[in-house]
Amino acid sequence: MKKHIVVLTGAGISAESGIKTFRDADGLWEGHDVMQVATPEGFAANPELVLNFYNQRRKQLFEVEPNQAHIDLASLENDYHVSIITQNVDDLHERAGSTNVIHLHGELLKARSTYDENDILECKTDILLGDLCQKGYQLRPHIVWFGEDVPMIEHAMHICETADILVIIGTSMQVYPAAGLMHYVPAHIPIFFIDPKPTLSSKQNLTVIAETATIGVSKLKTLL
Questions:
Q1: Per-position DSSP letters for 137-196, written without gaps between them
Q2: Alpha-carbon distance 211 to 104, whole Å?
Q3: pTM of full prediction above 0.90
Q4: Which of the residues are catalytic?
Q5: What digits encode the pLDDT tens for the residues 135-167?
Q6: What is the CATH number of the domain that holds 100?
Q7: Of 67, 81, 94, 104, which is the most buried if we count CB atoms within 10 A?
Protein backbone atom coordinates (compact mmCIF):
# COMPACT_ATOMS: atom_id res chain seq x y z
CA MET A 1 0.00 0.00 0.00
CA LYS A 2 1.35 3.39 -0.98
CA LYS A 3 1.30 6.08 1.72
CA HIS A 4 -1.42 8.71 1.22
CA ILE A 5 -0.15 12.29 0.91
CA VAL A 6 -2.83 14.97 1.17
CA VAL A 7 -1.75 18.35 -0.20
CA LEU A 8 -3.62 21.59 0.57
CA THR A 9 -2.70 24.34 -1.89
CA GLY A 10 -3.54 28.03 -2.05
CA ALA A 11 -2.77 31.09 -4.13
CA GLY A 12 0.96 30.98 -3.37
CA ILE A 13 1.58 28.00 -5.64
CA SER A 14 -0.16 29.62 -8.64
CA ALA A 15 1.47 33.01 -8.03
CA GLU A 16 4.79 31.65 -9.33
CA SER A 17 3.08 30.86 -12.62
CA GLY A 18 2.01 34.50 -12.89
CA ILE A 19 -1.55 34.29 -11.56
CA LYS A 20 -2.25 37.29 -9.34
CA THR A 21 -3.71 36.85 -5.88
CA PHE A 22 -6.11 39.40 -4.40
CA ARG A 23 -4.86 38.96 -0.83
CA ASP A 24 -1.60 40.69 -1.72
CA ALA A 25 -3.29 44.00 -2.42
CA ASP A 26 -5.66 45.10 0.34
CA GLY A 27 -8.68 43.19 -0.89
CA LEU A 28 -8.27 44.36 -4.47
CA TRP A 29 -8.14 41.72 -7.15
CA GLU A 30 -6.74 42.95 -10.48
CA GLY A 31 -7.91 46.44 -9.53
CA HIS A 32 -11.42 45.40 -8.48
CA ASP A 33 -12.99 45.39 -5.04
CA VAL A 34 -13.40 41.71 -4.19
CA MET A 35 -16.94 42.35 -2.94
CA GLN A 36 -17.91 43.58 -6.43
CA VAL A 37 -16.60 40.55 -8.31
CA ALA A 38 -16.65 37.66 -5.84
CA THR A 39 -20.03 37.81 -4.08
CA PRO A 40 -23.60 36.92 -5.10
CA GLU A 41 -24.55 40.52 -4.30
CA GLY A 42 -21.91 41.83 -6.69
CA PHE A 43 -23.20 39.55 -9.45
CA ALA A 44 -26.79 40.64 -8.83
CA ALA A 45 -25.80 44.32 -8.95
CA ASN A 46 -23.64 44.17 -12.08
CA PRO A 47 -23.59 40.75 -13.77
CA GLU A 48 -21.81 42.06 -16.86
CA LEU A 49 -18.88 43.39 -14.80
CA VAL A 50 -18.55 40.08 -12.97
CA LEU A 51 -18.78 37.95 -16.12
CA ASN A 52 -16.16 40.11 -17.81
CA PHE A 53 -13.86 39.88 -14.79
CA TYR A 54 -13.86 36.08 -14.91
CA ASN A 55 -13.61 36.09 -18.70
CA GLN A 56 -10.34 37.99 -18.29
CA ARG A 57 -9.13 35.54 -15.61
CA ARG A 58 -9.98 32.64 -17.94
CA LYS A 59 -8.04 34.23 -20.82
CA GLN A 60 -5.07 34.77 -18.50
CA LEU A 61 -5.14 31.09 -17.57
CA PHE A 62 -4.31 30.12 -21.16
CA GLU A 63 -1.24 32.39 -21.06
CA VAL A 64 0.42 30.71 -18.06
CA GLU A 65 1.96 27.30 -17.46
CA PRO A 66 2.32 25.02 -14.44
CA ASN A 67 5.49 25.78 -12.50
CA GLN A 68 8.03 23.36 -11.03
CA ALA A 69 6.04 23.03 -7.80
CA HIS A 70 2.99 21.76 -9.72
CA ILE A 71 5.21 19.38 -11.70
CA ASP A 72 7.01 18.08 -8.60
CA LEU A 73 3.71 17.42 -6.82
CA ALA A 74 2.45 15.46 -9.83
CA SER A 75 5.66 13.38 -9.80
CA LEU A 76 4.95 12.27 -6.21
CA GLU A 77 2.25 10.00 -7.67
CA ASN A 78 5.06 7.67 -8.79
CA ASP A 79 5.67 6.68 -5.16
CA TYR A 80 2.60 7.80 -3.19
CA HIS A 81 -1.16 8.00 -3.37
CA VAL A 82 -1.62 11.78 -3.67
CA SER A 83 -4.79 13.82 -3.13
CA ILE A 84 -4.61 17.54 -3.87
CA ILE A 85 -7.21 19.78 -2.24
CA THR A 86 -6.84 23.26 -3.72
CA GLN A 87 -8.40 26.63 -3.03
CA ASN A 88 -7.29 27.70 -6.52
CA VAL A 89 -9.70 27.91 -9.45
CA ASP A 90 -7.06 27.34 -12.15
CA ASP A 91 -6.24 23.99 -13.78
CA LEU A 92 -2.46 24.10 -13.29
CA HIS A 93 -2.36 21.01 -11.06
CA GLU A 94 -4.17 19.00 -13.72
CA ARG A 95 -2.00 20.35 -16.53
CA ALA A 96 1.11 19.36 -14.56
CA GLY A 97 -0.17 15.77 -14.40
CA SER A 98 -1.89 15.46 -11.02
CA THR A 99 -4.77 13.01 -11.37
CA ASN A 100 -6.70 13.52 -8.11
CA VAL A 101 -7.55 17.21 -7.60
CA ILE A 102 -10.45 18.60 -5.56
CA HIS A 103 -11.29 22.27 -6.17
CA LEU A 104 -12.86 23.75 -3.03
CA HIS A 105 -13.63 27.12 -4.60
CA GLY A 106 -14.76 26.05 -8.06
CA GLU A 107 -13.09 26.07 -11.46
CA LEU A 108 -12.53 28.84 -13.99
CA LEU A 109 -12.95 26.41 -16.89
CA LYS A 110 -16.52 25.56 -15.90
CA ALA A 111 -19.80 27.46 -15.96
CA ARG A 112 -22.98 26.72 -14.10
CA SER A 113 -26.65 27.62 -14.14
CA THR A 114 -27.86 30.38 -11.83
CA TYR A 115 -30.95 28.22 -11.29
CA ASP A 116 -29.35 24.86 -10.47
CA GLU A 117 -25.85 24.84 -8.92
CA ASN A 118 -25.43 21.20 -9.98
CA ASP A 119 -25.98 22.05 -13.67
CA ILE A 120 -22.28 22.48 -14.52
CA LEU A 121 -20.75 22.80 -18.00
CA GLU A 122 -17.21 22.77 -19.36
CA CYS A 123 -16.31 26.33 -20.39
CA LYS A 124 -13.16 27.49 -22.18
CA THR A 125 -14.61 30.63 -23.77
CA ASP A 126 -16.26 33.82 -22.49
CA ILE A 127 -19.56 33.70 -20.61
CA LEU A 128 -21.74 36.55 -21.83
CA LEU A 129 -24.96 38.11 -20.56
CA GLY A 130 -27.66 36.15 -22.37
CA ASP A 131 -25.79 32.83 -22.33
CA LEU A 132 -28.36 30.46 -20.84
CA CYS A 133 -28.51 26.95 -19.43
CA GLN A 134 -30.87 24.41 -21.01
CA LYS A 135 -33.69 25.55 -18.71
CA GLY A 136 -33.30 29.15 -19.83
CA TYR A 137 -31.41 30.65 -16.88
CA GLN A 138 -28.29 32.82 -17.10
CA LEU A 139 -24.95 31.01 -16.83
CA ARG A 140 -22.38 32.18 -14.28
CA PRO A 141 -18.79 31.21 -13.46
CA HIS A 142 -18.51 27.95 -11.51
CA ILE A 143 -16.80 29.79 -8.66
CA VAL A 144 -17.63 29.65 -4.95
CA TRP A 145 -18.10 33.30 -4.00
CA PHE A 146 -17.84 34.79 -0.52
CA GLY A 147 -20.98 33.98 1.43
CA GLU A 148 -21.75 30.83 -0.58
CA ASP A 149 -21.56 27.23 0.62
CA VAL A 150 -18.44 25.22 -0.21
CA PRO A 151 -20.00 22.03 -1.64
CA MET A 152 -16.75 20.01 -1.74
CA ILE A 153 -15.74 20.65 1.87
CA GLU A 154 -17.19 17.43 3.35
CA HIS A 155 -15.50 15.34 0.66
CA ALA A 156 -12.24 17.14 1.49
CA MET A 157 -12.70 16.41 5.21
CA HIS A 158 -13.06 12.68 4.51
CA ILE A 159 -9.90 12.71 2.38
CA CYS A 160 -7.96 14.44 5.18
CA GLU A 161 -9.08 11.75 7.64
CA THR A 162 -7.19 9.14 5.56
CA ALA A 163 -3.90 11.07 5.27
CA ASP A 164 -0.55 9.54 6.21
CA ILE A 165 1.25 12.83 5.47
CA LEU A 166 -0.18 16.36 5.15
CA VAL A 167 1.47 19.07 3.04
CA ILE A 168 0.25 22.70 3.08
CA ILE A 169 1.54 25.00 0.31
CA GLY A 170 1.05 28.69 -0.37
CA THR A 171 -1.93 29.35 1.85
CA SER A 172 -2.14 31.31 5.08
CA MET A 173 -4.56 28.78 6.60
CA GLN A 174 -6.61 31.78 7.75
CA VAL A 175 -9.63 31.37 5.42
CA TYR A 176 -12.38 29.04 6.60
CA PRO A 177 -13.68 26.45 5.98
CA ALA A 178 -10.46 25.43 4.15
CA ALA A 179 -8.30 26.40 7.14
CA GLY A 180 -10.12 23.88 9.30
CA LEU A 181 -9.09 20.92 7.14
CA MET A 182 -5.76 20.41 8.89
CA HIS A 183 -7.72 19.52 12.03
CA TYR A 184 -9.23 16.48 10.30
CA VAL A 185 -5.98 14.63 9.66
CA PRO A 186 -5.02 11.83 12.08
CA ALA A 187 -3.11 12.97 15.16
CA HIS A 188 0.70 12.94 15.03
CA ILE A 189 1.09 12.36 11.28
CA PRO A 190 3.92 14.41 9.68
CA ILE A 191 2.78 17.86 8.51
CA PHE A 192 4.86 20.06 6.18
CA PHE A 193 4.00 23.76 5.80
CA ILE A 194 5.55 25.52 2.78
CA ASP A 195 5.20 29.30 2.59
CA PRO A 196 7.70 32.18 2.33
CA LYS A 197 5.90 33.96 5.20
CA PRO A 198 4.65 31.07 7.32
CA THR A 199 1.92 31.73 9.87
CA LEU A 200 2.89 28.58 11.81
CA SER A 201 6.15 27.59 13.51
CA SER A 202 7.85 24.17 13.60
CA LYS A 203 6.91 21.86 16.45
CA GLN A 204 6.78 18.07 17.11
CA ASN A 205 5.18 16.69 13.94
CA LEU A 206 5.10 20.02 12.02
CA THR A 207 7.98 21.00 9.74
CA VAL A 208 7.91 24.56 8.38
CA ILE A 209 9.73 25.22 5.08
CA ALA A 210 9.90 29.02 4.75
CA GLU A 211 10.32 29.08 0.97
CA THR A 212 8.34 29.78 -2.17
CA ALA A 213 6.38 26.83 -3.54
CA THR A 214 8.92 25.85 -6.21
CA ILE A 215 11.86 25.75 -3.80
CA GLY A 216 9.78 24.37 -0.94
CA VAL A 217 8.33 21.42 -2.85
CA SER A 218 11.80 20.54 -4.13
CA LYS A 219 13.03 20.47 -0.51
CA LEU A 220 9.95 18.48 0.52
CA LYS A 221 10.82 15.73 -1.98
CA THR A 222 14.22 15.24 -0.34
CA LEU A 223 12.64 15.15 3.14
CA LEU A 224 10.08 12.52 2.15
A1: -BEEEEE--TTS--TTHHHHHHHHHT-SEEEEES--S-STTGGGGGGGSPTT--EEEE-S
A2: 24
A3: yes
A4: 105
A5: 999 999 999 999 999 999 999 999 999 999 999
A6: 3.40.50.1220
A7: 104
